[in-house]
Design a protein that fits this description.
The protein is α/β, with parallel strands linked by helices and about 400 residues long. It folds into 2 domains: about 140 residues, Aspartate Aminotransferase, domain 1 (Alpha-Beta Complex); about 240 residues, Type I PLP-dependent aspartate aminotransferase-like (Major domain) (Aspartate Aminotransferase, domain 2, 3-Layer(aba) Sandwich). Strand 5 and strand 6 form a beta hairpin. Helix 3 runs antiparallel to helix 10, helix 5 packs across helix 6 and helix 11 runs parallel beside helix 13. It binds pyridoxal-5'-phosphate.
Length: about 400
């Protein structure tokens, strides 16, 4: 017996992240262009950092509101009002220690050990891993790839629901595929949730990274107040704050106290000075986000063009988020390819195998980066592809 044997099976069996494995392999390479992680290349802008620094200087170093400081919850309500076209109240929002933390709380509140949570795959691996650690069974429903991009067959989703299903995790726009549900699909999913009494855990953290000139369709567009929808969200992507670890939940105000309790017994709240930074991001950051989305749109077109010109990749320009999930002809083993790409092209990509069912044979490239570097990376990749 080793010490490991005395841990719970759920902890022991938690998978290594296939993304971290390749990052650990290549992170020290001189000149490597890293497109493997889910983040952009810019540090948090000063108007956000300065608000946090000021909070820190003002001695905001004590325990604070578990559900989030009133100013931040008001800023969240205003932000949603601006982007989702209706009124929101501060008591619909709870501040969490990251999007990941919001997901964990949503899972704790909706799915017992032994029950099932359905999600769409290929998927960002953290949701199924968190469900499994909680003793639940994550059930993938595979999206299908065609020349028109990634598609969900709602009948496949309906077929995955069993008497043990409690929640549907819907990430749209999706990491890694960029699949973005249209209103009809959202309505179909909502209808399933109503018919079977299921919670929807809506992960719309990339809603503003949408490339048809408007934010992505949202469950806010189709739901009623009493629907069982929990929104998980994050400051990470929109405002270049991945390292801050701040997120939020949007829920029916009736659920506030319960979620405050769950926050109390997990991270006990987010530092007050960081919440000042988060409030500045919301109140003053619309212009910054718009610039980021505009740059990402150009970046998307650039990589799709350069890789598409090789004539040897299967790709469809993603509708949302900031990833290209593509396959290379004659590349059966994406994991081995990701290592080879580090060695030969000096570019860091995440292997599709890290994203579960349906991800084999694909690579994920994060294009949220300076265009000159991205062009260099895409050219190196195109050369590697052409020389295979
Ligand atoms: C789809 C999706 N949801 C949630 C998150 C979590 O974001 P964070 O924990 O950084 O707030 C990520 C991060 O990559 C993501 O891609």
């Amino acid at each position: 017996m080793t010490l490991l044997d005395h841990l719970t099976a759920e902890a022991r069996l938690a998978p290594d992240s296939g993304i971290s494995t390749i990052i650990d392999y290549g992170r020290e390479r001189p000149g490597l262009i890293p497109l493997w992680a889910g983040e952009g290349d810019l540090a948090t802008p000063d108007f956000i950092s300065n608000a946090a620094i000021e909070g820190l200087r003002n001695g905001e170093t004590f325990y604070t509101w578990q559900r989030g400081i009133p100013e931040l919850r008001t800023a969240l309500a205003d932000y949603h009002g601006r982007h989702f076209g209706r009124d929101f109240q501060p008591d619909e929002f709870m501040v969490t220690g990251s999007g990941m933390h919001a997901i964990q709380l949503a899972l704790q509140a909706t799915v017992h050990a032994g029950e099932e949570a359905v999600y769409l795959s290929p998927a960002w691996p953290n949701f199924p891993a968190a469900a499994a650690i909680a003793g639940a069974k994550p059930v993938p429903v595979e999206l299908e790839f065609s020349d028109n991009g990634w598609m969900l067959d709602p009948e496949k989703l309906a077929a995955a629901i069993t008497p043990k299903t409690r929640a549907l995790f819907v990430n749209s726009p999706s990491n890694p595929t960029g699949w973005t549900a249209d209103r009809e699909t959202l309505k179909a999913i909502l209808d399933l949730s109503r018919r079977h009494g299921l919670w929807i855990i809506a992960d719309e953290i990339y809603a503003l990274f949408h490339y048809d000139g408007q934010r992505a369709p949202s469950f806010f567009d189709v739901m009623e107040a009493e629907d069982r929808v929990l929104f998980v969200n994050s400051f990470s992507k929109n405002w270049a704050m991945t390292g801050w670890r701040v997120g939020w939940l949007r829920l029916h105000p009736e659920l506030q106290q319960t979620f405050e309790n769950l926050i109390q017994y997990s991270n006990s709240g987010v530092p007050q000075f960081m919440q000042r930074g988060a409030a500045a991001a919301l109140d003053q950051g619309d212009g910054f986000v718009a610039e980021q989305v505009q740059r990402a749109a150009q970046a998307r077109d650039l990589v799709c063009r350069i890789l598409g010109d090789t004539g040897r990749v299967r790709l469809s320009a993603p509708q949302g988020a900031f990833y290209l999930f593509f396959a290379v002809d004659g590349m059966p083993d994406a994991r081995a390819a990701a290592f080879e790409i580090v060695d030969r092209a000096n570019v860091g990509l995440a292997p599709g195998t890290a994203f579960g069912a349906g991800g084999d044979g694909y690579l994920r490239l994060c294009f949220h980066r300076r265009l000159d570097q991205l062009e260099e990376a895409a050219n190196r990749l195109a050369e590697w592809i052409s020389n295979r």
